[in-house]
Amino acid sequence: MAGLLGGARRLLERMREWGMADSKFEGNNPHGISAATNPGVAAYREDVFTLFPFAEEAKGWLREQIGFEVQDLQSTRGGGYWYPDQRKVFLFTAQYEAAIHELAHAWWHDRRIGQEDAMMEATIALSSETDRRYARMAHLAYGYIHGIPEQNWAGMLVERNDWEMYAGLASGMMADLRLVPPYVRRFYEGLYRLLPDDAPSPAALAPHG
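^ that's the sequence the OP posted. Answer follows.
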């Protein structure tokens, strides 16, 4: 734990040293500072890959194939987008949950073809899961499938939105496959490593959400 927190402190020090240029919005397409041109953003992406159990295959593919931009490294408020036409992940801030979510979108985008129904069926099964080890993720999946009436939200199944189910479960478990049953884990093979049962929670060790 001390090593991870020390790494986070070093990252923050590097952010202050390098500084961040102002980002801008053009129409509905926000622009941030790119990992390809700014060492602070590249370091943050590596921090995400180090703190959370991304597989080596996924880390290499995401570095090479997907653009990665952050608007404000000094904030952790969250939010972001996946732009498939630009092959780009854009984050408003350096929140780990948002990074995991948008990177999952990027990974799933091409790999979902032919797997859409199977992913939705797995989410439906998770929404009814009775194993207490998966209770938190089952509750999340229940909302995806059945909606949240008090929030006037019909859920994702009515729109057959497999891509948000995928990314939502990814960020809901914070890349920790132990929190979902095997019939869900299989969709994340290649993206995340399955941690040993006695390993600490990556989210609990992370310096912020």
